[in-house]
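To illustrate the input format used throughout this study, we show a single complete record. The first block contains the structure-token representation of the backbone; no residue identities are included at this stage. The design step must infer an amino acid for every position from geometry alone.
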């Protein structure tokens, strides 16, 4: 009797693998038994810190995560990696994802976020046509696309973007819809409301707050400078949301889905909860800096995830207070390690933002 042949591993290709969402999605897919490939930009500094805990030397046969140099601005590289990796699923998470920075770098943001999605979709389309394989595509949308449209926002809500980043995301959204309708690509848009974690970039407001709390608590910082405290957002945990991304690509037909907690809080409420968690009064430490106000603000984002709950059976597990505690605890530990280095004279306390 011939021995059973093991089924080949499913392959996933992720752009933005080194980011917050990319690292959580990589963990999730590895646990599902996938072989995970990620496209990373070349940098003079290592930018793979969020992946260190799952990294295995590619020379070892047990390595199921592999990194490749490329960029969403480089169509030839995208085509090369799609053709050589032959992924079953492609997750486009790569972006210049900071709303404030998009006002300062609008051309670059539009190219990478909007046209970058088009380049990747075209690489997937050509690969499907030339090989006959099925490749499923996930496009990372954003609640910022709704902009000035009042909540609650769902899949049928009209987009009214208020930043170059949001405009570019709207373009990527409709490129995805067009490739689904015009070419039959299994392409899904995930419209994710704000999702945070201890791995969030330190220049995003939630992480900026929790990072400062840790440093204030151990005596490395006194003040935190912020902009609009009245902006209200639907904040969830990034680890919950990557499961939703995967579930979208496991359905029989491609579609678009909102992922959200359906609960919103202002930046001021985030300050109250996070500073209060460690026994501090945020008003003693926070100052308003007009430089952090944007030319056009988004006042209130709160999603309705009814469709995802019904069709995907997806539910957010981590609630607001748990999320805040998770982030503050992680940044307090980080600040304690930093304090040891400062006290020993290895670094200057002002080196960090």
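Output of the design step:
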């Amino acid at each position: 009797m011939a021995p059973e042949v093991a089924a080949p591993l499913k392959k996933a290709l992720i752009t933005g693998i080194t980011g917050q969402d990319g690292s959580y999605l990589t963990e999730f897919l590895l646990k599902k038994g996938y072989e995970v490939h990620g496209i990373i930009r070349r940098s003079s500094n290592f930018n793979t810190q969020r992946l260190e805990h799952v990294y295995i030397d590619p020379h070892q046969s047990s390595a199921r995560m592999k990194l490749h140099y490329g960029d969403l601005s480089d169509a030839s590289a995208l085509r090369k990696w799609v053709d050589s990796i032959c992924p079953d699923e492609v997750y486009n998470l790569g972006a210049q994802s900071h709303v404030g920075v998009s006002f300062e770098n609008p051309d670059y943001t539009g190219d990478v976020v909007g046209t970058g999605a088009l380049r990747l979709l075209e690489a997937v389309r050509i690969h499907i046509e030339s090989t006959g394989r099925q490749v499923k595509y996930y496009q990372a949308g954003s609640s910022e696309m709704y902009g000035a449209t009042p909540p609650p926002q769902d899949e049928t809500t009209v987009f009214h973007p208020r930043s170059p980043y949001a405009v570019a995301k709207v373009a990527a959204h409709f490129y995805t819809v067009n490739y689904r309708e015009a070419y039959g690509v299994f392409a899904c848009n995930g419209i994710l409301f704000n999702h945070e974690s201890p791995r969030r970039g330190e220049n995003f407001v939630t992480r900026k707050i929790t990072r400062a709390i840790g440093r204030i608590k151990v005596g490395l910082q006194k003040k935190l400078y912020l902009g609009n405290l009245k902006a209200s957002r639907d904040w969830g945990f990034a680890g919950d949301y990557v499961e939703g991304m995967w579930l979208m690509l496991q359905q029989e037909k491609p579609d678009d889905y909102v992922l959200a907690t359906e609960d919103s809080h202002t930046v001021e409420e985030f300050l109250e909860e996070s500073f209060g968690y460690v026994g501090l009064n945020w008003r003693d430490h926070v100052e308003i800096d007009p430089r952090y106000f944007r030319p056009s603000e988004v006042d209130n984002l709160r999603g309705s995830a009814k469709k995802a709950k019904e069709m995907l059976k997806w539910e957010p597990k981590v609630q607001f207070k748990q999320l805040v505690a998770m982030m503050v605890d992680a940044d307090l530990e980080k600040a304690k390690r930093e304090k040891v280095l400062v006290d020993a004279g290895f670094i200057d306390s002002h080196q960090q933002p």
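Structural context for interpreting the output: The longest strand covers residues 136-142. Residues 106-131 form the longest helix (26 residues).
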